[in-house]
Amino acid sequence: MDTALQAPLQPDLQRLLDEHAHRALLRLAVVGSVDDGKSTLIGRLLYECDGLFEDQISAVRKASAKRAAAARTEALAQGLKAAAGGGEEEELDFSLFTDGLRAEREQGITIDVAYRYLSTARRKIIIADTPGHLQYTRNMATGASTADAGVILVDARLGVLPQTRRHAYIASLLGIPYLAVAVNKMDLVGYERATFERIGSELADFARTLGFEGVRLFPVSASRGDNITRPSAHTPWHEGGTLLSWLESLPHQRRLDGAPFRFPVQYVIRPHQDYRGLAGQVASGTVRVGDEVQVLPSGRRTRVEAIDTFDGPREDASATASVTLRLSDDVDVSRGDVLSHMGSPPLSLQHLDAMLVWFGEQSLDATRRYLVKQGTRTTPAQVERVLWRKELEDLSEAPAEVLALNDIGRVRLVCRRPLLCDAYQENRRTGAFIVIDALTHDTVGAGMVLGPAESVSRAGTSLVSQAEREQRLGHAGAIVLLPATPEAVNRAFALERRLFDLGRAVATVAGDVEVALALSRAGLVALVHADAPQLRRVLREEALEARTQWWELNDTETLEQWVEHLTSEAGT
Asked: Where's the Tr-type G domain (predicted)?
């Protein structure tokens, strides 16, 4: 195209881009039990709001025709001429717009969370299509964790199912304020008003007990488009408008700009001696150049000297901007620390109560050590006890000792290092955490901080001093991290034997952070072998924080060199 023709278009194009950038953003989670029509509803929304490309529509049209042909062939083979039909225009299978995995299309279910984007004249919407199967509840919780509103679907033929209640409860736990109850497949029940009111009232009454700020009911047919983007002539008795109009009428997404300033440090940037910056994402609030801030957990005070970004320096930064902060003082800051304003620090909790959604195939074991990751901080933790498990049928709190797969309950956590957090209801970004199995490195739970433990039983101070232990044993306690190789593990017990013969109090530990630290505090030399990289990193951090002597041996050295190193003046 001639440049002279392009020039007049540029201002209009820029104006369109500016309008689009300033439209309010809504994050939406669509939840419900399996086969309730979530993917079909989202596909219909995308199709009717022009949120799809032509090649996507063409591909789905071909796939829909292929499915219909296969269904006709099967019907003819079984002698069902009426079901075989023929001649009419093929209908689009709207679920194929979101079910992108091959396994999803083969089975006709949603397995993983699928994110889709659409834009209307009034706002931008990011939609999370979450799976409905019980075994994929963990994926559903992931998709709903950042949502500002939710749509929960119910099959008009089946009514409210246990999984429907579970998803509604998880949505409320995750802080979603607005919920739409969409009674789907109304065309299959003849658009009966009584059916809609019975199902809608049952789920709406259940949802209102969960604390949602607003609950709306819609009779819909996702496959036929009733009450999705246009009012349906089949439901003249419904006066609640369409689902799209409800989405466009919701208040602007809840911003974290006005919340207290929180900046979890992700990385310390030191390209040269004249530059030291703290990189991370502003979790909530706003920070400005010149603000007085404190570094937690140390409590050191300083000021923000500069705010650097990829696009250049800025005078301020708000959630959720990724920036680098430079401080006016050279204070000690590392990954996992949190910067906040002086008057509004986060909680520092070592003993805390939390709601926990359990994802692990293996049930929660209160005798086992886990890792808790909150923000940029990871710390070993133990579930002191399960306070209760939520019964989703009647929302009662049942006594429980463990949580199994997909259970939801209240637990009491004891963390090796304090979490710098807020109550989840006050700040979703800093009140959420995940639980990691320290051995398998699997994410086994998602938690929401409730606050300090209601009753904390703290152990008393030992009556045996560190100096007395060193005098009795003849050496100080220490942790020795062995290389994570099979050969090194085999040599661990030989090293233990040699050090024992030399008069050292020594024990071998297989990757348990708490046991290794306890042994070193008791004056023993703990030989630790651990394969998981994160476990090794946590062990290093904990040893340094506890001021415990620490060595990491090299696999290239021989057993004799190890012994010489650990018994030299630089060793034990």
From this structure: 23-257
The answer to whether 557 and 551 have CB atoms below 8 angstroms apart is no
pLDDT tens-digit map of 139-168: 777 777 778 899 999 999 999 888 888 888
- How many other CB atoms are there within 10 angstroms of residue 231's CB atom? 16
Contact 371, 315 (CB under 8 A): no
Where are the domains positioned within the chain? 21-249, 263-341, 347-452, 466-567
CATH superfamily of 466-567: P-loop containing nucleotide triphosphate hydrolases (3.40.50.300)
- Give residue 407's pLDDT: 87
Give phi and psi for 187, each to the nearest 5. -65, -25
pLDDT at 395 over 80: no
Q: What is the rounded distance in angstroms from the CA atom of residue 186 to the CA atom of residue 221? A: 5
pLDDT of the residue at 1 = 45
| Encoded amino acid at 240, one letter | G
Considering the domain 21-249 in this protein, what is its CATH number?
3.40.50.300
Neighbouring-strand partners of residue 411: 354, 386
**CATH code, 347-452:** 2.40.30.10
pTM equals 0.68
Residue whose structure tokens are 């050295």: 557
Sheet holding 24-32, edge to edge: 114-119, 123-129, 24-32, 149-155, 178-184, 214-219
